[in-house]
UniProtKB/TrEMBL annotation:
InterPro entries: Flavoprotein-like_sf, RNR_NrdI. It comes from the Bacteria. This is Putative NrdI-like protein. The gene is nrdI. It comes from Streptococcus didelphis. It holds the Pfam family Flavodoxin_NdrI.
Length: 152
């Protein structure tokens, strides 16, 4: 049976809710089993991820406006550390960001920064817990990206 690994961090529960609903959707509609790794539960431990995976993270920033006055990532740094450790970034198909559109230029900024830092694509975004449309849209993007990687 096909599978997909999702590496994520959830602090308020929004990202966890999204990952659970995405996993259920992939199983129901595509018979794809998901393996989820919630970085929050690892307590800063890292290990090699040998299979391709998708990363999902919320945006928590301090200071700045997302344009010219700087910003500091807070609370989600363990995901970046995990992706960097053991060259895990080489297996990342891409990243999905979440956030609150009220924060304007800072919306999903952390995901954009990770994509640039590690050289993988930002696959998409969703606001807060995401909608069923977000689940369907991002599932299709993930599956298309995974298929392209397998063709290479």
């Amino acid at each position: 049976m096909p599978h997909l690994t999702i590496v994520f961090i959830s602090l308020s529960g929004n990202t966890l809710s999204f990952v659970k609903r995405l996993s259920q959707y992939l199983d129901t509609h595509f018979k794809i089993q998901t393996k989820t790794i919630n970085i929050k539960e690892l307590k800063h431990e890292t290990f090699p991820v040998e299979e391709d995976f998708v990363a999902i993270l919320p945006t928590y920033l301090e200071g700045g406006n997302g344009l010219d006055s700087g910003d500091v990532e807070i609370l989600t740094n363990p995901l970046g550390d995990f992706i960097a450790a053991h060259d895990n970034y080489k297996h990342c198909l891409g990243i999905i960001g979440s956030g609150n559109r009220n924060f304007n230029n800072q919306y999903c900024l952390t995901a954009k920064q990770y994509a640039k830092r590690f050289g993988f694509p930002m696959l998409g975004d969703f606001e807060l817990r995401g909608t069923s449309s977000d689940i369907e849209r991002l599932a299709r993007i993930i599956l298309d990206t995974k298929a392209k990687r397998q063709e290479q």
